[in-house]
Amino acid sequence: MNGVARFARTSRALHWTMAAMVLAMLFIGMSMVASLGAYHSLLSVHRPLGILVLVFVVVRFVNRQIHPPPPFLQDMSSRERIVASASERLLYLLMFLQPLVGWGMLSAARYPIVLFGPVHLPPILPHDLRLYEILRSTHTALAYGLCLTFMGHLCGVLFHTIVLRDRLLRRMAP
Ligand code: HEM
Known about the structure:
Layout: H1 9-34, H2 39-66, H3 78-108, E1 113-116, E2 119-121, H4 129-164
Antiparallel strand pairs: 1-2
Helix pairs in contact: 1-2, 2-3, 3-4
This protein binds protoporphyrin IX containing FE.
């Protein structure tokens, strides 16, 4: 599009779908612990949507091997390219670890991992309340990590699009 190399169609679709899912998960998670009244109904959305994030992140990783990203814009310095690649890897890692830790912490608490109706996931860790405690704190820490990395990613894209006006956003435009 107008000389700007773009991400593949599947990569763009996965990018925007996952951005919406992860943002929704962060808001649902925070609302869940803040509102006891809505806790159970929010949790019944949080679990299946979180597992869907796990499935999508694997699909997205495979898609990235099939459709590698277009080369960086020429105006990006080598330092900026290193930071951009590192933040993308960190986002992938966090999107993979966060749902696994969620699944693991419920397993360690022997809490039923209901997807919908009678469909349950098996526990992936032994019953251990000390382990639950560690994973519960890890789930919160990873959520902060996801928020911060996401904000950094957003600031970088906005800086390119609004200040440098190099049409970086067009590479990922739907
Ligand atoms: C991308 C995926 C996920 C994100 C971004 C996410 C985010 C969050 C956030 C922000 C919180 C609140 C943490 C706090 O304030 O302390 C939370 C709590 C929670 N999450 Fe997740 N989560 C994800 C996946 C999952 C999965 C897959 C499960 C389970 C299968 C899960 C189970 C839970 C539970 C049970 C709580 C509340 C625990 C409590 O009441 O103490 N999460 N999540």
